[in-house]
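Residues pack. Consider this:
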Amino acid sequence: MARYKHIDTSQRFIAVNLQQQLLPGTFEHALNHLLDHVLNLSCFDDRFKNDKTGATAYPPAMR
């Protein structure tokens, strides 16, 4: 199984809260929901050969 980097989307140093920017009914909200809950992105796991060695990769949903 591919190893992916942990992407922390919580509010840090910027004044914009990314969770509040994804308003229901917008394209961005729909896209975020599709990537997080509907689409099965596991087909991309075979592309990465970093199970035990190698650097972690960015998750396919982040590209």
Q: What stands out?
A: The chain has a mean pLDDT of 80.
